């Protein structure tokens, strides 16, 4: 059964300032986020992620367009009347209160009884696995533990929607990885819709049910991590998520939903014709380094000279200069026996399966 839509932005636009100073922070953004979904807004600094989050929370009003929660417009509702909580990068805990008092604060403000509040605090401490630390002050906790308290506090009144604005960016790498797994578990345990903001593509890929990739106030692509990674539709998305080779190609004959692509060096391959786009006679394909390999056989799609070799332990990267002077990145796993002993300066062929070549729309 299709899940209900939890929150929807319809043509959401936000312009800060006026005249020459005007900044189009969000430009006609439409997206529907489903109940129980872990949804991530991903994009570089300044692309409008936080602005979209603030419109959903009610901290900002849209300049145009609408925000709907469970099908109802909420733009006229102040933040505290929306069933939405936010976790910020700075945890914003009250330093003079204990962990338990921090978690209880919002519940008491809402007039929830002492007994119910105590039960919820216990429930939340267990959920974020801080069972015995309810009596400590925030200053007596590690960064990761403080982050858990902030989460517990935001979840204590059982919101329909939790917004998380780069909540893990203050943590060191190891802790961040642990918290990524924890956040995903907490989302699954509670069934609450999470909207997570990050500029870290790996974080987005590992945690999300779906990702919206943003650039310059617009959403460029929405999809599952696999769709976004395997089938980017634009140069920006292909380049922003993971590593990729962007190859200029001449577009050839089209028939039976297939299109011929002429690669640098002259070889031709056929790829599925993208739907609904007008294509000229030139295009770009994106090919992930790990979907390619080196060969000394004549059966090859591209050819070039190995410029550099970088060993990574689990795999090795070869940087190959192609006929058109561009560098192509080939990444192969160092499985036993897989090392072919290619050398720097050697002329080699590059091989990849046709479905590794993703023709971009723009
Ligand atoms: P970051 O990852 O750096 O937080 P972001 O993707 O969240 O970036 P936003 O904070 O949404 O981006 O900002 C989008 C654009 O709007 C930026 O150019 C920013 O400078 C501008 N902007 C945001 N808030 C305001 C404001 N209150 N007044 C003027 N300009 C603003």
TrEMBL record:
PANTHER family: SPERMIDINE/PUTRESCINE IMPORT ATP-BINDING PROTEIN POTA (PTHR42781), SPERMIDINE_PUTRESCINE IMPORT ATP-BINDING PROTEIN POTA (PTHR42781:SF4). Part of the ABC transporter complex PotABCD involved in spermidine/putrescine import. Responsible for energy coupling to the transport system. The keyword Transmembrane does not apply. Belongs to the ABC transporter superfamily. Spermidine/putrescine importer (TC 3.A.1.11.1) family. Residues 7-241 form the ABC transporter domain. Its EC number is 7.6.2.11. It holds the Pfam family TOBE_2. Keywords: ATP-binding, Cell membrane, Membrane, Nucleotide-binding, Translocase, Transport. The gene is potA. The complex is composed of two ATP-binding proteins (PotA), two transmembrane proteins (PotB and PotC) and a solute-binding protein (PotD). One of its GO terms (molecular function) is ATP binding. GO terms for cellular component: ATP-binding cassette (ABC) transporter complex. It catalyses: ATP + H2O + polyamine-[polyamine-binding protein]Side 1 = ADP + phosphate + polyamineSide 2 + [polyamine-binding protein]Side 1. This is Spermidine/putrescine import ATP-binding protein PotA. Signal peptide: none annotated.
């Amino acid at each position: 059964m299709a899940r209900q839509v939890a929150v929807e932005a319809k043509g959401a636009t936000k312009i800060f300032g006026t005249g020459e100073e005007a900044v189009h922070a969000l430009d006609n953004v439409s997206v529907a986020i489903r109940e129980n979904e872990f949804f991530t807004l991903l994009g570089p600094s300044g692309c409008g992620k936080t602005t979209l989050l603030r419109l959903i929370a009610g901290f900002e009003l849209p300049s145009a367009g609408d925000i709907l929660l469970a099908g109802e417009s909420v733009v006229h509702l102040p933040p505290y009347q929306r069933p939405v909580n936010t976790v910020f990068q700075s945890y914003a805990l009250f330093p003079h209160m204990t962990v338990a008092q921090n978690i209880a604060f919002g519940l008491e403000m809402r007039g929830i009884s002492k007994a119910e509040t105590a039960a919820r605090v216990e429930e939340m401490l267990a959920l974020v696995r801080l069972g015995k630390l309810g009596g400590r002050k925030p200053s007596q906790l590690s960064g990761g533990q403080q982050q858990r308290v902030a989460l517990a506090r935001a979840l204590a009144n059982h919101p329909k929607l939790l917004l998380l604005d780069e909540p893990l960016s203050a943590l060191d790498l190891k802790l961040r990885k642990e918290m990524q797994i924890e956040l995903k578990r907490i989302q699954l345990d509670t069934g609450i819709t999470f909207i997570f903001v990050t500029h870290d593509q790996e974080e987005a890929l590992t945690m999300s049910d779906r990702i919206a990739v943003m650039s310059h106030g617009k959403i460029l692509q929405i999809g599952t991590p696999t769709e976004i990674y395997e089938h980017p539709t634009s140069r920006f998305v292909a380049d922003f998520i993971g590593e990729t080779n962007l190859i200029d190609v001449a577009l050839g004959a089209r028939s039976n939903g297939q299109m011929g692509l002429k690669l640098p060096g002259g070889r031709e391959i056929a790829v599925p014709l993208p739907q609904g786009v007008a294509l000229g006679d030139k295009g770009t394909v994106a090919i992930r380094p790990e979907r390619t390999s080196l060969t000394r056989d004549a059966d090859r799609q591209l050819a070039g000279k190995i410029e550099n070799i970088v060993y990574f332990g689990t795999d090795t990267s070869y940087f190959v200069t192609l006929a058109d002077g561009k560098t192509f990145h080939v990444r192969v796993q160092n499985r036993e026996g897989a090392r072919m002993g290619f050398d720097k300066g050697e002329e080699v062929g590059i091989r990849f399966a046709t479905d590794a070549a993703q023709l971009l729309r723009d």
